[in-house]
Amino acid sequence: MKRFFIFIYVVSLLFSVKLYGRDEAIDQDTAEVKKLNADAYLTRLTNPAQTVIGATRALALAQKMGYSNGIGEAYRVKGIGNYYLNRPETAIDDYLNALAAFSKTNSLKDEAKVYNNIGNLYLDNDYDQSLEFYQKSLDIAKKLANKELIASLYLNLGNVNYRKMSYYQALSYYDKSKEIFTELKDSTNLIRILQNRGVIYFKLNQLDKAQQLLTAANQQAKERDLNEPVASIDLTLASLYIVQNKFDDAQQIVSEGLNYARIVKDQKLEHDFNYTNYELELKRKNYQQALIYLRDIYRQDSSTFKTNVSSQLGLLDVKHKQEAKDRENQLIIQRQQYDRVRFWAVTIVAGLLLVLVGLLVSNVKRKAKTNVQLTNLNAEVSRQKDNLDRINHHLEEIIDERTKDLQVKNRKLSDYSSYLSHQIRGPIATLKGLMNLEKEGLVDEAECIRMMNKCVGEIDDKIIEMSDMLHDPVRSEV
Fold it and tell me: Angle at the Cα of 398 (from 395 to 403), degrees rounded to 5?
C-alpha cells in the first residue's frame, strides 16, 4: 500500500512539472510575440517594409499558440506598415482582422487603437468617415482615461481640420496633443506636431515661423532616424524655399528628401518630390527641364490615378461590407437585448406572482392566527365580565350594608347631638347667669366661683359621658 502511494506521488509530481514547463513555454512564446510586434511597430517610420515582415512573423507565432491579443496586435501593426507603404486595401483588411481578434477578448483599448488607425487610412479619401472613426476611438480612450491614445487622436483631429483648411482649429488640437505628449515624453509625436504646425504656418504665409518650426522638426527627426518624417518635412521645406526664391536650398532639400523617400519606399512621396522639382524648374524659368519633369509626372499621375481609384473603390467596398456587417451585428445585439428583456420581464412577473402568492398565504395564516387570538380574547373577556359581575354584586351588598350602618350612625349622631344640646345647654345657661350676676355685684365672688366650677364640672362630665357613648359599641347600641 505504501509503494502504491509513493507511485501516485511520483506520477503527480512529473505531471505538475510537465504542466509547469508547458506554461513556462507559453509565457515565453507570448513574450516573443509581444517583442516582435513592438520591434515591428518601432520601424514604421524608418522602414515600413520591415514593419510588415516583423508583424507577419509575430502573427504566425500568435496563431500557432492561439494568442488572440497577439493576433490582433500583429494584424494592427501589419496594417500600419501597409498604410505607410501606400497599400490601403491590404491595410484595411489587416485592421478589420485586428478588430475581429480584439473583439474576442473584449479589449476596448486595442479596439480604440484600431479605430484610430482606420481613421488615418480614410484621412486622404473621406474626411467624414475619418472623423467618425476618430470620434469612436476618442470616446473609448476618454472612457479608459488613456492619455497616449487621447493625445494621438487630438493630433489626428488636427490633421483633419488642416485638410479642411480650418487652420486655427487644427492648431488648437495640436496644442492639446502637445500638452499630453510633453507629459508622456513622447519625442516622436512631438516632432510630428512641430512639423504639422510648421506646415500650417506655411499655409498661413508666415514663412519665417514656418521655416523655424520645420527646420527644428527636421533636425530632431534626423537625430532619431525617422526617415519618413524627414522626407515629408523636406517636401514642405522645399516648397517654402521655392516661394522665397532660395533655389539652391530648394534643390538640395529636394535631393535629400527624395533619398529618404526611396529608403522608406514611399512612391507617393517620390511623386510629390518630382512635382516639387517641376515647380522649382518652372520658377527658375528652366522650361525644358520643367517639361521633362511634367511628362514624368503625367505618367506617374496616370498610374497613381488608377491605383488611387482602385484603392478608393476597394475602401468603399470594404466600407459597405463593414457597414453591412455592423448592421447585422446590430440586429443580433438588438435581438439579444430583446430576448434578455423578455427573459427578465418573465422572471420579474413570475417573481411578483410568487411574492403575491406568498403574501396571500401569509395573509390567510395571519387571519387564522388572528381569529384564534380573537376567540381566546373573547373567552378571556367573558371570564373577566363574570368576575366583574360577581365583584359588582358583592360591592352592592357591601354598599347596602355600609349604607344601613351609616344611616344608624347618622341617627345616633342626631340623637347624641340633641342629647348634648339638651344636657350641656343647662350648665352653660347657668354660667352665663352667674357671669351676669357677678358683673352686677349681686353674688359673692367665692360663691360665684364655686358655682361656676360646679357648672364646668357638669359640662366636663357630660362631654366625657358623650365620648364614652360614641366610642363604646356596646353602649352605643343601648
Answer: 120
- Residue 336 DSSP SS3: helix
The whole-angstrom separation of Cα 149 and Cα 181 is 10
Can you give the C-alpha Rg of the chain in angstroms? 59
Measured distance CA(50)–CA(227) in Å, rounded = 13
Residues 6+ apart with CB under 8 A from 185: none
Per-residue burial over 282-309, b = 16 or more CB atoms within 10 Å of its CB, e = otherwise: beeeeeeebeebbeebeebeeebeeebe
What CATH number does domain 19-106 carry, 1.25.40.10, 3.30.450.30, 1.20.120.910, 1.20.120.450?
Answer: 1.25.40.10
474 or 104: whose pLDDT is higher? 104
Q: 3-class DSSP state for residue 435?
A: helix
What lies within 8 Å, CB to CB, of 196 at 6+ separation is: 155, 158, 159, 162, 170, 174
User: What residues contact 319, with CB distance under 8 A and at least 6 apart?
Assistant: 129
pLDDT: which is higher, 150 or 17 = 150
Instruction: Tell me: pLDDT of 208 over 90.
Output: yes
DSSP per-residue codes, 361-418: HHHHHHHHHHHHHHHHHHHHHHHHHHHHHHHHHHHHHHHHHHHHHHHHHHHHHHHHHH
pLDDT-above-70 percentage for the chain = 84
What are the domain boundaries of the chain? 19-106
- Please say if the pLDDT value at position 315 is more than 60: no
pTM (two decimals):
0.55
Cell triple for residue 401? Answer: 350594608
Question: 245 and 283 in contact (C-beta within 8 Å)?
Answer: yes
Give buried/exposed letters for 176-213 (b at 16+ CB in 10 A, else e).
Answer: bbbebbeeeebeebbbbbbbbbbbbbbeeeeeeebbeb
Amino acid at the residue 171: L
Rounded to a whole number, what is the largest CA-CA distance in the chain?
187
Find the distance separating the first CA and the last CA of the chain, reported in whole Å: 119
Torsion over CA: 305, 307, 310, 312 (sign) = negative
